[in-house]
Structures are given as structure tokens and as C-alpha cells.
Write a structure and sequence with these properties.
alpha/beta; 5-stranded mixed sheet; binds 6N-dimethyladenosine
């Protein structure tokens, strides 16, 4: 059996994308915000059948941490990444498995028996915005017993890096804590993505419980703002929020915490709790937070932004696992994020290009 370097954990979803004029129509019809990520409420539930039956849709493998797993795998040797999540025994799952196979990501799925169905995300593209409306289905049936199966226990025991999506905290805090606590007590690196504004907003308790075990926190500007609001520091600048998150309490105090905040086409901000000369950290001679400009893309290079943040995170994670310097980790993150923006959905370029 393989021993992957990275284990990623989250909600496996099949993305069903609709764009153009139809995107505008469905955004209005279901009262969605142009750039948001939500769990479908009752009023949104018909959207999946509606777009499949009435619109031109594209199916692409999704699920935030699964996208990041494929992103990391893009720059690592085959067999370096495994992904854990819960799916149904159906054709959606087969599509996801195929996308992982193509990237040599091991699909360490917990498979729920029928009638459970694999989760789906309606992705409504309008211009450079993307609205994500998710029905978790089998994804939220993830049971911690999966971690105790010999195959999964071996993956988790062997991995050096763990990636957890914030989205998983809506239902899986027990498993996330189990993995993160054990990893951080063994000196392994735990990476958490904030995933969406509603996570710090409505799952703050779970987030605060997990945060002490997190070495690298990744989010975007609206997630950082939502955290700031929830933490009572709504007036703080992005740099101040990143520094505060980096400084908040940590179970493995011998390791610094790094906080990375992306802002789409604008600069990426990185804060460290304790700069050092180690790879993957801000150097003591550098500013902290450190600001990294993002290379410009022209309008015609942008297809859609679905998955760009995940591919940034995957590229960053893969580079970190390769022992690269922070500057290179951010650069590779930017490259994969931008590569994804040039594709339909959370995909990268094939045949593979060097990054
Ligand atoms: C719990 N929710 C809402 C979610 C998601 C999600 N992945 C996990 N849980 N909502 C959207 N996504 C995924 O995010 C990617 C873009 O960042 C979508 O599947 C999409 O591929």
C-alpha cells in the first residue's frame, strides 16, 4: 500500500456549472449572490434538476479539498496525495474517482450504501463571479469510524501534511479534530482553509476549537473579513486580521503559524507568528506580514474563477511539501490559481505544463 505525503479531507462534490445568460437567469431565479458559497436551503433544492433539465451544463469534479488535493498532486510525484471524504455508490462518485485517478490522487472514500447520493454543487457563473450552492447528501454522512479502518489509519499515520477544508466543519468537527490533534502532536503540518464566509460566521465555535492545531491557515479576503466581524475586530485591516490569526493560541508552540490571505487578482498577504530562516516561513529580515503581488491576467485569459482558490491552496501545499521557500510556495500557488481560471471549473492544464 502507498504512503502518501499529503492527506486531504473534505466534502466530495460533483460541480454542475451553468454560465453566460443562463447563469444570470439562474442567479436571479434562486436569489443567489454573485460571489458566494452556501448550503442549499429548501428554496434552492430544485436548482439541480432545473439546470440539468433546462440549461446547458458542464459537469466537473469539485469539492474544495478534493480540488486542492488534485492541485497539490499536479506538482508532486505520483502517489503523493490521498483524499478522504464520503460519497454515494453512484455515477457521480465514478466521475470524481476518474478525475482523482487522472491526477494519481488516491480516493480514500467512505462509500455510503444506496439510496445515499454523492453531493453536488450548482455553480452559477456570471462574468468573473461564481456562486456555489451545495447539497452535501452523502458528504455529510461522513462517519469518524472511517478513520479507524486499517487502510485509512495507515494513510493518516504516514502522511506528513494534512489539508482540511473549513466546509467540513459544518458536520465533521469530530473527525477534523481527531486528525488535526494527532497530526500536530506528532509534529506534522496541519493546513486549514477557511473555505467560505459562512464558516467563521456560523461555525465559529468549531473553527476556534480546531485553530490551535493549525499550522497554516488559508483564506480569501471575504473570509478574513467574516472572521474579523465574528471576532469583534470588524474595523481591522486585512494585515491586522492575518497577524491576529497567526498569533492566536497554538497547541504545538514550537512551530510558527502562517496565515495566507488571497484577494483574487489583488495581492496575497502572508503573516507569520514567528518568522525564521526555515523553508516555508517569512524570513526575519522580511516584512511581516509580507505582501505578494499577483501577476496580471487579461480578460480573455479568464474562463471562470470556480476552484481558483483551491488550486492556489493545492499549489501552495504541494510546494510546502516539497520543502520550497515561502516565496516559491506563493508563486506556485498563484500559477495554479491562474491556470485554473483559464479552464472550465476546478481544472488544470493537460498535458501537464511545468510550473
Ligand atoms: C459545505 N459546502 C458548502 C461545500 C462546498 C464545496 N466544497 C465543500 N463543501 N461548496 C462549494 N464547494 C466546492 O468549492 C469549489 C470551489 O472552491 C465546489 O464543489 C467547488 O468545486
Amino acid at each position: 500500500m502507498s504512503t502518501p505525503l499529503i492527506v486531504s479531507m473534505g466534502n466530495p462534490l460533483l460541480d454542475i456549472q451553468v454560465a453566460g445568460e443562463e447563469g444570470e437567469k439562474y442567479l436571479a431565479k434562486y436569489g443567489l449572490k454573485a460571489d458566494d458559497a452556501i448550503l442549499a436551503e429548501d428554496k434552492h433544492m430544485p436548482i439541480y434538476d432545473d439546470i440539468v433539465q433546462n440549461a446547458k451544463v458542464t459537469y466537473v469534479a469539485g469539492g474544495a479539498a478534493q480540488n486542492a488535493a488534485r492541485g497539490a498532486a499536479y506538482i508532486l510525484p505520483a502517489g503523493s496525495v490521498a483524499y478522504i471524504g464520503s460519497v454515494g455508490d453512484d455515477d457521480l462518485m465514478q466521475t470524481l474517482r476518474k478525475a482523482n485517478d487522472a491526477e494519481s490522487v488516491e480516493s480514500a472514500y467512505q462509500v455510503q450504501p444506496a439510496p445515499a447520493k454523492t453531493g453536488a454543487c450548482a455553480v452559477v457563473i456570471t462574468g468573473h463571479h461564481r456562486s456555489l450552492c451545495t447539497t452535501l447528501r452523502a458528504a455529510e454522512m461522513f462517519n469518524p469510524s472511517h478513520l479507524a479502518t486499517p487502510e485509512i489509519a495507515q494513510l493518516v499515520a504516514g502522511a506528513k501534511f494534512f489539508y482540511i477544508e473549513g466546509y467540513f466543519l459544518t458536520h465533521g468537527i469530530e473527525s477534523a479534530l481527531e486528525v488535526a490533534k494527532s497530526a500536530s502532536s506528532r509534529g506534522r503540518t496541519v493546513v486549514l482553509n477557511l473555505s467560505a464566509p459562512f464558516i467563521p460566521q456560523f461555525f465559529k465555535v468549531q473553527l476556534e476549537e480546531l485553530l490551535p492545531h493549525v499550522d497554516v491557515l488559508i483564506g480569501n479576503e471575504s473570509e478574513a473579513a467574516a472572521y474579523a466581524e465574528a471576532a469583534g475586530m470588524g474595523d481591522a485591516s486585512l494585515e491586522q486580521v492575518a497577524s491576529a490569526l497567526a498569533a492566536s493560541s497554538k497547541s504545538n508552540a514550537s512551530r510558527p503559524r502562517l496565515v495566507i490571505v488571497t484577494q483574487g487578482a489583488d495581492s496575497t498577504v502572508v503573516a507569520s507568528s514567528n518568522p525564521s530562516t526555515s523553508a516555508g516561513n517569512i524570513k526575519p529580515s522580511d516584512p511581516n506580514p509580507k505582501v505578494y503581488p499577483v501577476p496580471k491576467l487579461s480578460n480573455d485569459q479568464i474562463i471562470d474563477t470556480n476552484g481558483a482558490g483551491d488550486m492556489f491552496a493545492g499549489g501552495f501545499l504541494g510546494a510546502l511539501a516539497l520543502g520550497k521557500d515561502l516565496d516559491e510556495c506563493v508563486e506556485i500557488g498563484h500559477k495554479l490559481g491562474q491556470m485554473c481560471v483559464g479552464q472550465i471549473g476546478p481544472k488544470l492544464v493537460y498535458p501537464k505544463v511545468n510550473v
